[in-house]
Sequence to fold (224 residues):
Amino acid sequence: MLETSKLDLENVAVWIFDLDNTLYPASSDLGAQLGRRMGEFVAKFLDLPLDQARVVQKHYFHTYGTTLRGLMVEKNLQPDEYLDYVHDLDLSDIDLDDRLGRALAALPGRKLIYTNATNEHAARVLRHLEIEHHFEASFDVVDGDFLPKPHRTPYDVLLDRYDVDPKRSVMVEDIAKNLVPASELGMGTVWVRGGRDLELGADHIDHVHHITDDLPAWLLDLSS
Fold:
């Protein structure tokens, strides 16, 4: 259920942040780059024209949560080549926002990254944003045994590995359905809508507690 009051920082010991389109704006070109490289990989791997490959890619994403998972389940793909190819991205389009670093510095509690990408990609992005020193660790799709969010099992693995009490943690995400397992586990949740014209579906509305279109501003307001 959406909360209208400010989140109580005294009850939060751990922050779990998604990476892409969460710690930088979804308006960045990075998502488009990633989508193009996924389509190119699918086209080459399945020997399809690019337009057909994009249809298959979207089918895998909506059916399995990630294109990678679909390729692994349906085509027995070994993931390393795919992960290396699709995350070979130009980060120069991501603008630095010094508010984010200030907000993370002022935010009490441990901070973790949970991404459907790889830890190597996360490390590159965090370095580019100049915020890597704020995070204790990152947990990626490999750590989750290639089960992407919102599959429940990797959430449990993350909580156990880093000794996180879900009732004293908050998850921050740009994809609302990925907040459902977090909420069911007892976490607070923040949906980073990022100014996009998106609505909460009926399956998600009870699991999103806070919404923001500007994460740095929202975090700074918490600490003020």
Summary: The mean pLDDT is 93.
